[in-house]
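Review session, final week

We close the course with one last complete record, chosen because it touches almost every idea we covered. It is UDP-N-acetylmuramoylalanine--D-glutamate ligase, a protein from Methylobacterium crusticola with 462 residues. Go through it on your own first, then we will talk.
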Amino acid sequence: MTPSTTFAGRSVALFGLGGSGLATALSLRAGGARVVACDDDPARMAAAGEQDIATADLRGADWSGFAALVLSPGVPLTHPAPHWTVGLARAAGVPVIGDIELFCRERAARAPGAPFVAITGTNGKSTTTALIAHVLAAAGHDVQMGGNIGTAILSLAPPAPGRVHVVEMSSFQIDLTPSLAPSIGVLLNLTPDHLDRHGDMAAYAAIKERLVAGSDHAVVGVDDAWSRAIAGRRAGPLTRVHVGEAGDGPGLLARRGVIIDGRAEPAVPVADLAGIGPLRGAHNWQNAAIAYAVAANLGVSADAFAQALRGFPGLAHRMEEVGRRGPVLFINDSKATNADSAEKALSAFQSIHWILGGKPKEGGIAALAPYFPRVAHAYLIGAASEAFAATLEGHVPFSRCGTLAAAVARAAAAAADDRAGEPVVLLSPACASYDQFRSFEERGDVFRSLVRALPGIAAVGP
């Protein structure tokens, strides 16, 4: 745990008692603050009370006595309308912050030079965060990994000289971190997402830009116009990362699966990603090149980086190999909750038996049409089935399966008869999970279990 000592002796309001909220309350209390916590869920209020965290309905609180409101990142700050706690805090002149702001203040007070790597972007954040942490740990660094990737940042060991914090940050978390100033700030890419929470794309991009604008050194993927513009405005040290044949100024290039350091003449090959399953596809070439930029900045040699890549296990639910039956490979990409994320998986395979659907997001799957020729058959599940069927009609053969269990059974049977070189049964839903599952993790876990229950399956991965 990282005790939040910068609010010692003061009262702090807290709204949102999920995993990170509860960790924040305990951190504040350990640091000497007086916490008054609130949540819309009575069960969470009761669970906090069992840990001796003071709870109350903040509607009736005296806000003049609070030094800050710590807001869960899942609670609206601005759009579609500020949460009622935000209105009360602002009326009383109380700053609204998040748990990563508490970490930043603690780092500034305790160990201002401690390495702090912050990673954001629309897609690829979790893979890149995990890859950076893996490479640094393999090189002998003391690494703490958390934030949006799973472990609440205040549950990690505190900042200290020589200890590297590698932290994934969502736009919601950045918005609640006014003093964000990482030693290395990473922006992977930008495509429309969460616009219901930010208003429009310009506002969303501006929030993401804050992470690299305040960093000592910025690493930016420049393959989309929004990120390229942000890199162009960057005044301080910057590493550009490109995927493809051409670059935008000197930087790192991920070309056909080979990372090339083009910051000096002549350009130097760093690592070949061929054969590394968790790093398939051009999007993962970018993730790996960005990981190298960060690792090199922290003293990891090219040889050590290339060796560490070979041991990267990948992430659950993101291009995760879960089983093989004969030539058929089964891939769990449940974390692909929008079309842009599903595109990455579709671009990495041929002869795809594609399981998709769930709670649809704006735009559907029309943007994926260039990849339809790769799809041997689509298996539709959940609430999006009819809308997706209309998009696929005349382009991709499909079956309405309803449930994930039915889709896995039909896809596995069809793929077994597919005479392509390496047929793939791919769960890449391009949808949220909430129509049939509590989370994308549960959806992916169910898929993994269904696959491994198939006769003749050879499990792959953990």
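Two points worth writing down before the exam:
The chain has three domains: 5-97, 101-309, 320-459.
The mean pLDDT is 94.
Good luck, everyone.
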